[in-house]
Amino acid sequence: LGTVSKETGIALFGVFWAYELLWLIAGTRKPGWTIRILLGAWSLVGYLAFRSWLTVHFTVGQEVFRRFENPVAFLPRLPRILSKFYVNSFYAGLAITPLELSADWSFDCIKMVFGFADLRLAAPLALLTALAAIASYSVCWLAVSSGAVSLLGATVWTLVMFAPSAGVLVDPGTTIAERLLYTPSAGVCILAGLWWTLLRTRPWNKLRPWLLLLALTTGAIRTLLRNRDWKGEGQLFTAAALVCPRSVKVLLCLLYTSPSPRDS
After folding, report:
1. What's the rounded Cα separation, in Å, for the pair 117 and 114?
2. Which of 49, 81, 151, 260 is 20 to 30 A removed from 74 (C-alpha atoms)?
């Protein structure tokens, strides 16, 4: 049902198989795992065949979107690879700290990366380093620590569910879309819960109630402020223009929602 509702739901098949592998490595393999893998494979083949029959284009690609919607897909090879690395790290930042949000992130909201001298490449480097550290810790302690299993499971969920939107296999139809973080953010929530359990030790235990209060208050205030932007189209795209003042779509929508041409 997830794959029918949204194309990125196909990542659920990857999550199922990754968890089967995770249980196998951790020594907690469930009975009937081969049947589940085969059923998942046949379901995936059936879905792909159905989608091929139903849609004109089998995958998202340059034939179904334009340059101003996702300029990354139209760059030369090296800038395209570097820009994808940066865009994915930008996604990670939105998932962890959603401070700046926009109704649209199309051209020319996010500046592309054209060379290794771009300092913004520090963001994907930090993200890859963190993922490597999580993988190393989890693999070393997987067989003896339930926390390591949970840590790796949450990370796998986040990465696999986001994989169709990462631009690795196919180019998505947009540079950034906040809706693509909905299902991957479930893994981020699990990671936050694991971090919370670590604070049970002294001296953090006394600070736990205050940290929880701070997190809930900050999140509530941010939610209330963002909800105001969705009261009307004019407010929505005015707020988007503050984040993406060079976005073609944002400027166009702002023009359409303005009371008069002079206001635009």
Report:
1. 8
2. 49
Per-residue pLDDT tens digits for 93-137: 999 988 889 988 888 888 999 999 999 999 999 999 999 998 888
Q: What does the H/E/C string look like for 204-241? A: HHHHHHHHHHHHHHHHHHHHHHHHHHCCCHHHHHHHHH
Cα separation, 244 vs 234, in Å, equals 15
Q: Which 3 state secondary structure label does DSSP give 51?
A: helix
DSSP state of 91: H
Q: How distant, in Å, are the alpha carbons of 60, 91, 107, 181 from that of 65?
A: 8, 21, 12, 21
Closest CA to 120 of 94, 95, 96, 88: 88
Give φ, ψ of 90 to 5 degrees. -65, -40
Which residues, at least 6 apart from 16, have a Cβ–Cβ distance to it below 8 Å? 36, 40
3-state secondary structure of 256: helix
Alpha carbons within 13 A on the beta-carbon side of 100: 15
Q: Which helix (H) or strand (E) covers residue 48, if one does?
A: helix 33-54
What is the spatial distance between Cα 248 and Cα 238, in angstroms, rounded to a whole number?
13
Contact predicate 244/109, CB 8 Å: yes
Q: How far apart are the first and last CA of the chain?
A: 42
Distance CA 10, CA 17 (A): 12
Instruction: Specify the pTM.
Output: 0.82
Question: What type of residue is 180?
Answer: L
Residue type at position 258: S
Q: Which of 43-47, 89-93, 239-243 has the lowest mean pLDDT?
A: 43-47
